[in-house]
Amino acid sequence: MSIGRSTAEAGAMASFRDAMASFPTGVSVVTTMHTDGAPRGMTCSALCSVSMEPPLLLVCLRTASPTLDAIRVRGGFVVNLLKYQARDTARLFASGDTGRFDQVAWRHHPGTAGPCLVDDAHAAVDCQVLRRDEAGDHVVVLGEVVGVRTLSGAAPLLYGLRRYARWPDASSLLDEAR
Prior knowledge:
Shape: globular
Order of helices and strands: HEEEEEHEHEEEEH
Number of strands: 10
Oligomer: single chain
Strand content: 35-45%
CATH superfamily: Electron Transport, Fmn-binding Protein, Chain A
CATH topology: Pnp Oxidase, Chain A
Distance between the termini: 49 Å
CATH architecture: Roll
Radius of gyration: 17 Å
Number of domains: 1
Number of helices: 4
Helix content: 10-25%
Low-confidence stretches: none
Largest sheet: 7 strands, antiparallel
């Protein structure tokens, strides 16, 4: 319990955390390039599509994140939508490991805001920042989609109930949608 927080507030926060843990979501790694030329990235499950005209999506990133700092400077980011086989990559990019990009295959395509995780993502969405809004201990970043790269038809990685999973029929549904 934090100093100055009542027992009721702490209980409400724990209940909120449990409720959100029970809501499954897709998993991504948000990447960008720092001005020093080094890649930055972090695991993100707080993202959603916002609009089709124009194509917009938002991601919510931890305020203290070095990735967010680089996005502020760069003005763009790439959302790597992870495939089911990328559980270890999701864990790696959620950790504080500073050598995370040394442990995965990635490529920075010319003209994009950040690296594409070529072996771990089923799609990569390149975005330019439209706006940022502080929200508690996170920043909501709204991005305009400027490019999409489809990498595979693999089943997406999901996260819920504090564990990773896959949608059993996702690959066949992706095939049907095409």
